[in-house]
C-alpha cells in the first residue's frame, strides 16, 4: 500500500480484525519507553562544545541546485565556518547560496549546459572580514579538468577542489604545483577522482 494515493478502489477481502492493543511488556513498547529516557548526544564534538578555531567541511554535492536544502538543514554544515562544495553543476548565472554564508569564490561550468564539474567556497558571514584573495581556478579541457575555489583566511590558503574522472596525473600535479607556489600554510580538500600519492 505504499503507492496508494486514494481509498477509491480499495476493498477488504474477508473479515477485518483490528490489531490487539499493545501490552506494556511488548518489545516495541519497552523500546519506545527506553528511547524517551535516553539523552541523545551528538557524536561530533564541535556540535556540543563552544565554538573555537575554524571548521572547514568539503562535500562532493553532485549538483548544488538539487541538494542545497540538504546542506541548509544539516547541522554539520551550518555549524562550520567554511563550506567547500565540488561537482556543483553550476552555470555562472546560477545563484549558489546557503543561509548565513556568502559564496566568495567559484569555478563554474563553461557554456550553456550544466555538466558534472565545478567548485565553490562558501564562508560564514561572520568571517568575511578575514577573507582575501578569493579566486576560482579552472585548469584543463574536455574530460581532463580541475575546478577549484580558493580563498585566503588570515594568511592560510584554503582550496576546495573537484577533478573530473578523466583527469590526468599531470593535470593534478600542475594544479598542486600552482597552489604550492603560494606563501604560507595550505588546506586542500576535494575529490581528485584518483589516488595522487
TrEMBL record:
SUPFAM superfamilies: DNase I-like (SSF56219)
Gene3D superfamilies, per database record: Endonuclease/exonuclease/phosphatase
The organism's place on the tree of life at top rank: Eukaryota
Protein's UniProt name: Tick transposon
Organism: Gongylonema pulchrum
